[in-house]
Structures are given as C-alpha cells and as structure tokens.
Amino acid sequence: MQLRVEKLRVSYGNIKALHEISFSVKAGEILTIIGANGAGKSTTLRAISRMIPAHPESILEFEGKNLLKYSADKVVSALGISHVPEGRRIFGNLTVTENLILACFARKDKKQIARNKKWVFDLFNRLEERKKQLAGTLSGGEQQMLAVGRAYMSGRKIMLLDEPSMGLAPLLMLDMFKALKEINSQGTTILLVEQNARLALKFARRGYVIENGNLILEGPAEELLTNPDVKKAYLGA
Amino acid sequence: MELLQYILQNLINAAERGSFYAVISIGYSMVYGVLMLFNFAHGDIFMVGAYIGFGIATLFIGIFAGLLPAPLIFLATVVTTMFLVSWVGVFVEVAGYRPLRNAPRASAAITGLMIGIIFETGVLILLGATRLSFPPLMKSVTYHVGGIYITNVKAMIIIISLLLMVALHAFIQKTKWGMAMRAMSYDFLAVPLMGVSINTIAPLTFAMGAGLASVAGILYGQAYPILDPYMGVIIGWKAFVAAILGGRGSIKGAAFAGYLLGFIEIFVATIFPSTLRDLIAYSIILIILSFKPRGFFGMEHSTKLRL
Ligand SMILES: Nc1ncnc2c1ncn2[C@@H]1O[C@H](COP(=O)(O)OP(=O)(O)OP(=O)(O)O)[C@@H](O)[C@H]1O
Ligand SMILES: [Mg+2]
C-alpha cells in the first residue's frame, strides 16, 4: 500500500466533517472517492496533504511514513504528494510559467525540472501558447490544465485531484481525463474525488462512496457503476 | 525663473523626505502582502536600525578612518547594518507573529505594538536617556546648480533609496522567493501546496522589510543626526499612512504614496507656518483617502481566501 488512511477524523471547529474513515491506495492505481455536496471529499484530500489538521489518533501513512509528522509543504517537497485543490487556486497574478516554476520551489534538480516542464507543455499545448500570460486571464479550462500541470511539477508520486471536471465543457472534460491517464501512465498514482460519479467511475479502477463523512461502499469501479444504490443516488438512473 | 528655482528646490527636499517614507512604508506593504497583517513594530525596527547603524558606523569609522576611503566605510556600514537588522526582523516574526498566526487579527496587531514598546524601552535602558549623535559618514558638500542648493548627503539619500527600490523590484519579479511572496499575496492557502514553507517566506519578508528600514535609519541619521528611542514612532505612523494610501499590500503603491506624503508635507510647509504643517498635510491626505478609500494601487487577491 502506498497510502494508508485509517480512522481518519477531521473537524472544522465543532463540526465533525469526517468520522473515522479508512481506505488505502496502491502505488500506480487510479482510485476515486465519489460523494455528494458536503460529504467530505475535499476534507479527505486536505487532511492527506496536511492543509488541515487531522485528529491526532488518525493514521495517515504514505510509503510507511507518518504523514502527521509532516507539514503541508514537506508533504509535497519531501514525499512527492501533489494536490490539485478544489477551485484550482492557481496564482492569477503570476504568469503560466511562473506558476509552474513556483511549484518546483523546493526542487534542486534543474534538468529534471526543465524536462517536466516540457512534458507539461507537450501535454497541454494551450498552456505553452500562453506561457507568458498572467494565469488569471486564462479560461476556466486552461486554469484547470495549469492546476494539474503545476501539481505534476510539484510532486509525481501521487496526485490528489479535487473535482477536476468542475466547470469544464464535456469535450474539455474528456481531454482532461485523457491527460490524467497520461500522467498515471508515467507512474503517478491518482486519487480522484468527484461529484460527477459516472465520469469518475469510468476513469478509475476502484472506487469508494462517501456519505456524511463516512465511507459506505467500496469496490471495483465497474461494480459500483452497476450497483443499484449507487445508480439511484449518484448516477441519476 | 525664481519661482521655478523655488519649486525645484522644494521638489528636491520633498524627494528626500519622501525617500524615508517610501523605503519604510514598503516594509509594511511587504508584510501585509504575505501575511495580511500590518507589522506595527516596523517604525521601531527603523529606530533599532538607526541605533545599530550608529553603532556600526562608529565602530567602522573608529577602525577604518584614514585607512579606507569614506564611501567604502559607508557601504560597509550599510551592508553590515542591513544584515544585522534583518535578523531583528526575523526575530519579530518568529517570536512575535508566528505564535499568533492563527489568532484573531487584533491580537497580531497588538503584538506589533508591544514589541515596539519593548524595543523603545529596551534601547532606553541599554543606552540611557543621553541623546546620541550619528557620526557623518561623508564630508558634507553643498553644490550650487542653477540657483538650487543640493548637498551630497541629500543626493545620496535620494539615490540610495531609489537603488534599494529597484533592487527590491528585481528581487520580487525575478527570484523564486519573490515569486513565492507574490503568490502569497494572491492566495496564501495554496502556497504550501507548491512545496513552499510559509516559515521560510514570512521571516524572509520581515527580514527584507527590516533591512530596508535600517538603511532608512542610517540615511535618516545622516540628515538628522540626533538619535532618540522614540524616533520611529511618528515616522512609522506616517509610513503606515503611506502604505494604506498606496493600497494595502502594494509595494509600488507604498513607494508612490511615500513620495506623495513627502511632497505634500514639504509644499504645505512652504505655504503655511511649519507648526501647522502636519495638521494641514494630513487633512489633505484624509481627503484623498476619502476619495480613494482603497488607496491608489489595490492588490490583486484571489476571490477564494478560505479552504
Ligand atoms: N473551511 C470549512 N470550515 C467549516 N466547515 C467546513 C469547511 N470546509 C468544509 N466544511 C464542512 O465539512 C463538511 C465536508 O465538506 P467538504 O468540503 O469536504 O465536502 P465535499 O465532499 O468536498 O463537498 P463538495 O462536493 O461540495 O465540494 C461539510 O459539512 C462542510 O460544510
Ligand atoms: Mg469539495
């Protein structure tokens, strides 16, 4: 197991957002967690990337290392965990290239950085055409490409993706998932959380369903796609 | 012709005064840009900078006078003082602000005030109430150009301040640390996801602001040699006014408003009796602010400043 999450509990002040959720991710796989608004998907990813504190009795292990001992920046720079946050959060006052370079802040491997950057530009041609442009002037789809490209630059062991399909037109959405497959085929594990359950389950091999801060179902993606409960609650059929 | 000379003369005086405000107010803006709070100890960091600059200048002049050319002693004083006072900035961040990073804004604000008071009384206790006099780092020469008087000290104050701002601009635009500072000002919550530690960027920002203020302290000591533990209070507040007037977090705005403050003060003083200067100057600024409540250059923030 590359990532082990056990009895993860997270609260925002008095509001309990996650009640003891447990799951694990194998190296190289594509895993999805689907769920409705407010179910706790973003919270799960934020806890892993240490953007928010987890209850101290939670177990969060990445390649055998206790994530609770790492700060948010070290999770990225020392462990190679990248996070494409909800709402993209690209730096609108920086250029496209600067966004990518900033993601390598702690990296020293100049040659590899140049190679990764070229790879990102090959993957998302539109970013290369706009590399000197301020990121805030990009379209929503381009911003999402930048958010993914930037995450790739920051760490390539596992990528946590928070609703990358949000706000994208269907065609762009397919392009985005093709790109994610490409990233996965380079050896990056993918943990995707999505409201768009159909899309996520077609893309992933394995999935979990989260409801009110609890994981309620687990299984291979194609099984979840045909599961009557999942169909009724999340696939609108 | 005489009027033109008169105006030019006052422009030079205004540029000198504005240089102090500009260089100091940038320190407020930088910290605000990165942490979204104002460092109210900054005026007193300027004061500490002047005292440390005084100590270094006295030491270097004592050792090197006659051995090294004066400009070199001056440069060595500036560089050494900047280095030392940067650490004062780091100290203020680590000991004062970091423990309160997630505390309510008001707590962080009074932290700065308290550190300021500690610095003032600290200097008072260490050095007593005797007023020290900053040694001149260069022999004063007055040039007389086309009916305008300018001393080499004044010229140096204006030029060094400009150079500092150009260097700072280059740093912020070109280096990865500058990039991280700009990113912080846009969306500080997303910055750690880039593998950037806030605990690197925040002290660096304080250090740079303090370093700039310390040079302002040395330059101030050349123009007004008498040191006083409370010398940072009024000038600190005025530079803070410039930081707000320039637009919160905007370095460009702080510099611009710093000069504007200098110009308003000097030109008010040419028309009205000097006892009324600040009363009238700051009434004018109040009026400007009521028309531009966000200041001249608002900073770009992300619309999402929460998780
Ligand atoms: N910053 C916050 N402060 C307080 N409560 C929060 C915060 N973020 C999320 N919550 C609460 O935690 C719970 C889980 O939220 P979370 O954002 O993880 O849901 P989600 O599954 O990502 O939903 P969505 O699909 O709408 O993004 C919700 O009840 C939400 O109201
Ligand atoms: Mg969410």
Q: In terms of topology, how is this protein built?
A:
The complex is a heterodimer of chains A (237) and B (307).
Chain A lengths: L2 E10 L2 E11 L4 E6 L5 H8 L10 E4 L2 E2 L5 H6 L3 E4 L11 H7 L7 H14 L1 H5 L10 H15 L3 E5 L7 H16 L3 E6 L2 H7 L2 E6 L2 E7 H6 L1 H7 L3
Parallel strand pairs in A: 3-8, 3-9, 6-7, 7-8
Antiparallel strand pairs in A: 1-2, 1-4, 4-5, 9-10
Helix pairs in contact in A: 3-6, 4-6, 6-7
Chain B lengths: L1 H34 L6 H23 L5 H28 L7 H23 L14 E4 L2 E4 H23 L1 H11 L11 H26 L7 H16 L4 H21 L5 H15 L16
Antiparallel strand pairs in B: 1-2
Helix pairs in contact in B: 1-5, 1-6, 1-7, 1-8, 1-9, 2-3, 2-4, 2-7, 2-8, 3-7, 5-6, 5-7, 8-9, 9-10
The complex binds adenosine-5'-triphosphate and magnesium ion.
How would you describe this structure to a colleague?
The complex is a heterodimer of chains A (237) and B (307). With 237 residues, chain A is of the alpha/beta class. Chain A has ten helices and ten strands. Chain A has one domain: P-loop containing nucleotide triphosphate hydrolases (Rossmann fold), CATH 3.40.50. The two termini of chain A are 34 Å apart. In chain A, 47% of the residues are buried. Chain B has one domain: ABC transporter involved in vitamin B12 uptake, BtuC (Orthogonal Bundle). Helix content of chain B is 72%, strand content 3%. Chain B has ten helices and two strands; from the N terminus they run ααααββαααααα. The radius of gyration of chain B is 20 Å and the shape is globular. The mean pLDDT of chain B is 94. The site of magnesium ion has 4 residues of chain A, from α1.
What is CATH's topology name of chain B? ABC transporter involved in vitamin B12 uptake, BtuC
Share of helical residues of chain B: over 70%
Computed over alpha carbons, the radius of gyration of chain A is 17 Å
Count of domains of chain B? 1
- Percent helix of chain A, as a range, is 25-40%
CATH class term of chain B: Mainly Alpha
Q: Which two protein chains have the largest interface (Cβ within 8 Å of the partner's Cβ), and how many residues from each?
A: A-B, 34 and 21 residues
Cross-sheet strand order for the largest sheet of chain A = 6-7-8-3-9-10
What is the SS-derived class of chain A? alpha/beta
Q: Please report the number of helical segments of chain B.
A: 10
Number of strands of chain A: 10
CATH class of chain A: Alpha Beta
- CATH H-level superfamily of chain A: P-loop containing nucleotide triphosphate hydrolases
Query: What is the total tally of β strands of chain B?
Result: 2
